[in-house]
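Here is an idea for our session: we take a single protein and study its fold together. Start from the sequence, derive the backbone structure tokens from it, and show both lines together. Once you have written the record down, we can walk along the chain together:
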Amino acid sequence: MTIQRSSAEENQSGRASKTNKKNSQNSRSGRWLWFWVGMSGIAMVSATAGALLAVSLTSTPLQQAQLSPQEEAVFDSDRISGGGLRFSELTRPVNLLVMGMSVLPPDVQSPPTETQNLGYLPQVNSFDGLADVMLLLKFDPETKKVVMLSIPRDTRTEIEGYGIKKINAANVEGGPALTAKTISNLLGGVGIDRYVRINVLGVGKLIDALGGVTVFVPKDMKYQDDSQHLYINLKAGKQHLNGNQVLQLLRFRHDELGDIGRIQRQQMVMRALMDQTLNPATVAQLPKVLEVVKEHIDTNMTVEELVALVGFGVRTNRSNMQMLLMPGSFSEKGEYDASYWLPNKDGIAKLMAQHFGLESEQGQQIADPASLRVAIQDSTGGDRSNLRPLIRALEKAGYRNVYVSKPWGEPLEVTHIVAQQGDGNSADSIRNTLGFGEVRVESTGNISSDISIQVGQDWLQQKAMFDKSANP
């Protein structure tokens, strides 16, 4: 017994010794693995920093506009990124104004000679025309969120010194500074730290530099404008688009929603780009991307600040990236001498309080379910009767204004509960009521709704349970 026990103990001791030796080797291997991962990370950052430094020292300055001291004072000049090795770290919340410029020869005082006598009006690499796209982005390291607010170019507002006009004219009258001041006044005095203007020619090059983007084209799009050599020909469905095709998708506005439909497609493209390209590999490619598009960009950001914003975007959870549309409505036909997007002051105040930290007399009140407009958009292609248990469940929970809207064209695996007006809390409440779906704070749903439920295949899996609940 003793011998057997001793032998067992010896064997066990031997196994333990081998195990300890193996663990020790694994531990050392693990330490070396993490060492090399760390060194690789440092090498990548160092290479990126070096390449960025080379770009910043040898290339054309990113700021191409000449701003007066008064114009520069419109923007907050305080540092937004760390110093030294912390150059890529965002150190405070930043509001960034982004403008997409579509400029034709008549828009500039001295158009390039090669654009004359062509028989059509080509795009010009300039920043002096109307702002075709306007976004206010908030990068917030405190909440770890990125918020993108789309401002329709046809918004009717006062431009200081020029009267009531469409907001896209502010750039023509006074460049980025007047545009920033106009947008700040419209949005309750929100501060704007930096601006970026990118010419439409640069957008196509940017998409190509990123390798294109896979996006769902919501419907067939065909349009021809010989005067600009603008030819749009896209088929509906999920597909990988190059830079020129993305421009076709972004510039198409000949449907019932006009510019608002275009903004929704912009948000779809931005969401797809974020999902596909916001990763460490993109940061490493940033010098190459900048080199490709630098002549089409005008910004008062330094290269280091741009890296800090992109780096923050890479680290931000996709559910914390929110895309909003400035509240408003279309003007009635004949109401004004032109068609406008009319701002909703109460809606703007509520949105700015909730997402940009501005004070509001209304406060951040929780919406009464009975007051919410809930649109249901089916993507499953099923019979409309399949939605009845869903509608009953919402009505039972106190949602009184529920209606079925135009079907959602993209087939979805997971239901999207879209906070159309930016009210993420109400969207969360509906998600909790239903017990399935994914909340998205964006403006891709029914524009008349507060919340749009874009029904996916997961509803078909839940339907039997909802039927049983309704008929115990």
